[in-house]
Design a protein that fits this description.
- The structure is a single chain.
- It contains 22 helices and two strands.
- With 450 residues, the protein is mostly helical.
- A two-stranded antiparallel sheet has the order 1-2.
- A hairpin with a 2-residue loop joins strand 1 (186-190) and strand 2 (193-197).
- Helix 3 (65-82) packs parallel to helix 6 and helix 13 (274-295) crosses helix 21 (406-423).
- It is globular.
Length: 450
């Protein structure tokens, strides 16, 4: 009887402790889920030259750089355009069931890519991956904001850190699975010039196995969230608010001080404010530098750096920089606000994006340049906190999804500008078009976000 009583008491205490700090469990699950969701997108830049080589081996034709970059562009478009669907579905479905269906679908789509060696079919797979990933991302952001209402920037920064680290994980896996012996690409003549492709049969044959490796990793990362993630009850929101207001947090300042909350806009009111369209344009501009640094770093560098492992290292360290940038910019936004955060980040990333064309001739300079640009594009994680600061917390999932849709327009613009690079103007002009708008974004943020 005594032992049973003791066990019951211990289990009750454990449940109480688990419930009291449920927001931390949610944060951990969201971080793992974000890493899983980001793995295909943030690692696609490392994978593109291998896929191009695979298509060349199966068809005998060289797929253009612009066409290859279309896949990550479509992937990002799927993420940004369809994310709002999850906000709608949550009104009609159990959140845990929705999370399970989205996670299972994502794993299956990535795993089934093992059977695909055709450009068109893989592009369709990228669409499906983006659609599912976008909904998972919005669900994750919504759970974080619900469970951490007063520390949204810091919480989203931590989540963004893990999402950025997915690029490190994916790049390392690409090297280990596809090209473990660091075999060099070889020049292949095309109608538009010379492309560097992997012609070794072993490297080409290993490409399909990366999808299985990614699918298994994603499955392991998603599992905890399937059982834990759910919206808080009103009572739990009040409890978490009391915890965040306690001495244990405020006295040691583990997280930044909270900012005063402004007017809480509805969706229609937000769409009538000029600030929404300014933020929309800024996020569109951000997508240009984000795609350039995460998806084209290998294509840009391969002309001057004939070392596949080093270029994968560039992607891996760029992902680490992006991860730290997401945390750093989230903390800066909580402390100094959207205006200062966006102004500084865009001022730095604009000129350095233009400089990528020149820094690639020194591989260590190129590595440093990519790392700094990736660090600045970590401000991506500040979209949701910026929406919360500028427009309030009401219907935050839909506000975030609407703002994030700007990246879809940025993706389309990026694709057409890259087509222009291939047929009308060179890489230097293209990178100038990618970097110069960031300076405009910095000016807009400084003068309009007061």
């Amino acid at each position: 009887y005594y032992i049973t009583n003791n066990l019951s008491s211990i289990m009750a205490d454990s449940r109480s402790c688990f419930a009291r700090f449920y927001n931390w469990w949610v944060l951990a699950c969201v971080c793992l889920g974000s890493m899983a969701m980001g793995l295909p997108f943030f690692s696609y830049g490392a994978l593109l030259p291998y896929l191009s080589s695979l298509f060349y081996a199966t068809t005998g034709k060289v797929t253009s750089q612009a066409a290859m970059a279309l896949q990550p562009v479509i992937l990002l478009m799927g993420i940004t355009l369809t994310g709002s669907l999850s906000g709608i579905l949550e009104y009609y479905m159990n959140v845990r069931l929705l999370n399970f269906l989205l996670s299972a679908g994502f794993v299956l789509v990535v795993g089934c890519s093992y059977f695909v060696s055709n450009f068109t079919v893989l592009t369709i797979v990228a669409v499906l991956t983006g659609i599912l990933g976008g909904q998972i991302n919005v669900c994750n952001v919504a759970r974080l904001s619900e469970w951490n209402p007063r520390k949204s920037g810091a919480a989203n920064g931590i989540m963004g850190f893990f999402m950025g680290m997915s690029g490190l994980l994916g790049s390392v896996m690409c090297s280990a699975v596809i090209n473990p012996f660091n075999k060099e690409p070889e020049p292949v003549n095309t109608t538009s010039g010379v492309d560097m492709l992997f012609l070794d049969d072993e490297v080409v044959g290993n490409v399909k196995y990366i999808w299985l490796a990614w699918a298994g990793t994603i499955l392991c990362l998603f599992l905890p969230g399937v059982f834990i993630l759910r919206p808080p009850t009103p009572e739990e929101v009040c409890t978490q608010d009391d915890i965040l207001s306690g001495d244990s947090f405020e006295s040691v300042e583990l997280l930044p001080r909270t900012k005063p909350v402004g007017y809480d806009y509805g969706i229609k009111e937000m769409l009538r404010t000029p600030k929404f369209y300014i933020l929309y344009l800024i996020i569109l501009i951000l997508s240009l530098t984000l795609l350039t640094s995460t998806e084209l770093y290998k294509f840009i560098g391969i002309e001057a750096i004939n070392d596949d492992k080093f270029l994968n290292l560039v992607g891996a360290l760029g992902a680490v920089s992006n991860a730290f940038g997401r945390v750093t910019w989230g903390l800066i936004l909580d402390r100094f606000g959207t205006r200062a955060t966006y102004t500084v980040a865009f001022c730095i990333q604009g000129p350095l994006t233009i400089a990528l064309h020149y820094s690639k001739w020194n591989k260590w300079g190129y590595l440093a340049n990519i790392c700094i640009v990736c660090f600045c594009t970590g401000i991506f994680t500040c979209i949701a906190p910026a929406c919360q600061e500028l427009f309030g917390s009401r219907e935050l999932s839909l506000k975030y999804a609407l703002t994030l849709s700007a990246e879809s327009i940025g993706c389309i613009l990026f694709f057409f500008l890259q087509l222009g690079q291939e047929y009308f103007y060179g890489e230097a002009a293209f990178l100038t078009m990618m970097g110069a708008p960031s300076i405009l974004a910095a000016i807009l943020a400084f003068f309009c976000f007061r």
